[in-house]
Amino acid sequence: MLRLSTLLLLVVTVCTSCGDLFDFGFSGRNADRVGYRETGEVQAWVPVYAEPDDVSGVALKDKRPTQEGGKIFALGNKLFQVETGVGLHIIDYSDKTKPVKVGFLNVPGCQEVALKGSAVYTNSFENMLVLDLSAFPDVKVKATLPNVFPELKYPRPPGRGGYYVCPDVSKGRVIRWKQETVLNPQCAN
Amino acid sequence: MRELMKTRILLICGLVAVLFAGCSKQDGSNNNYASENSGSGKGGSMARFAISGNYLYVVNSNSLLVYDISDPAMAVPKSTVAVGWEIETIFPYDDKLFIGSTTGLFIFELKDPEHPNRLGAVQHFRACDPVVTQGNTAYLTLRGNGTCGSPNNSLMVYDVTNPTQPILKNQLNLKGPYGLGVHSNALYVCDGADGLVVYDVTIPLYPKTVKTIKDGSTFLDVIPYNDVLIVYVKGGVRFFDISTPQNPVLLSEMLN
Fold first, then answer.
1. Percentage of residues in chain B with pLDDT exceeding 70?
2. B225 by DSSP, 3-state: which?
3. CA–CA distance, B77 with B73 (Å, rounded to integer)
4. Domains assigned to chain B
5. In angstroms, how far is CA B230 from the centroid of its own chain?
6. What does the DSSP 8-state code read for residue B9?
7. A77 CB near a chain B CB, below 8 Å?
């Protein structure tokens, strides 16, 4: 009886992990997962998942601290800086000795930015977005151009030849990667 | 119970955000966002977006995409050009685009801005490589350590007088360079934690080191914009006065 239930548990476990694999939706990338191995404690890339609030969509929020600052773009006395995977800091540097943050644009999966007039060009994961700030602080998404950056749909760990922790889709979308010491990471690139 | 708490906290956060938004609306200073931004903007050297005239040029990992942005709020797709593999950066200069990949540099001309035409290319060892241009000289950094392949790290100087045949004129050693920018007679190269290197480029093909600003920051990219050098460092941005281009003076920083 005990054996039967163990067997059942095993089958269920295997099935769930299969489900995880299929949920990735990118079969080629699953080749990264190569069975169980014991590498011990090694430096590895660890996925950082979007907070539920971060994926709620494009919106103007109150300014926030810079954590993982990314690319920058200047126009007039405004500077936009990417907060990797999360959105854009809007900085007013009219007084160059005292720049101030005037807000934060929540853009899930954001990595890129450019500005023209009151338009903001950015990306939300694989899609390019055109935002209109002409009625700032109201923000309008004027266009979503699908799949302009196919490689950003599932951001990959940087570089090659390293270990990483296999992403778990049930935890949300990966927005960036950080390096940590990990026990037995099960993926490698 | 925990879920309920979460919902409550979220609700409160939302309320606070709405209140703040209301405040800035009344303040009025930000309402003329559009009118003050009529000029053209500038990105860093590691950008995947480049704006030239009424066109937005975008590079993904293998293609160059062209959009008409005569009406900035509309990005009308015009064409897609296959470029290569592992494309990382695009830099617009005059009527040309300089595109960097992990294996080389590609130069496109924009006589027909909707259909960029490939003029020339150079191959280099595998590395990360942002590129900027001034006059007939292209400056390119190669970072080989870490995630980008070979162990070489350097500043490469190309004569692009004939863009169909860029000629490597000079190669200077660096520690682990990221972005770079050029302004007047100065070239600024971000060498990560090893500082911001300032070169004299009075003779464009032969940069001479003037100084290295090394103060604990990890320098990643720069935008020389008017008389200000906007520097993207790990953790935020810093502003330098460059009215004397070869002598950047720290004005302020925004870290957190």
1. 82
2. strand
3. 13
4. 40-222 (2.130.10.10)
5. 11
6. H
7. yes
Q: Give ∠ CA A178-B83-B71 in degrees, rounded to 5.
A: 85
- Tell whether A149 is within 8 A of chain B (Cβ): yes
A12, with CB counted inside 10 A (0-12, 13-18, 19+), is: exposed
pLDDT in tens, B165-200: 999 999 999 998 999 999 999 999 999 999 999 999
- Which ipTM score applies to this complex? 0.84
Interchain proximity B21–A60, CB inside 8 Å: yes
| Residue B181 to chain A, least CA–CA distance (Å) | 13
Q: Tell me: the pLDDT tens digits for A162-182?
A: 889 998 988 888 988 998 998
pLDDT in tens, B63-108: 999 999 999 999 999 999 999 988 999 999 999 999 999 888 999 9
Percentages helix, strand, coil for chain A (3-state, rounded to 5) are 20, 40, 40
Q: Which of B38, B237, B240, B252 should one mutate to test binding to chain A, selecting the residue with the greatest count of A CBs within 10 A?
A: B237
> Beta-carbon neighbour count of residue B126 at 10 Å?
17
> Could you tell me the two tokens for B27?
């303040």
CA–CA distance, A41 with B42 (Å, rounded to integer): 44
Tokens 């460059």 label which residue? Answer: B242
Quote the pTM value.
Answer: 0.82
Contact (CB, 8 A) for B104 and B84: yes
Please state the domain extents for chain A. 2-49+154-188, 54-150
Which amino acid, one-letter code, is at B117? N
Pairing of strands A41-49, A163-164: parallel
For residue B148, give the chain A residue with the closest CA.
A159
Lookup: tokens for A79: 């500077």
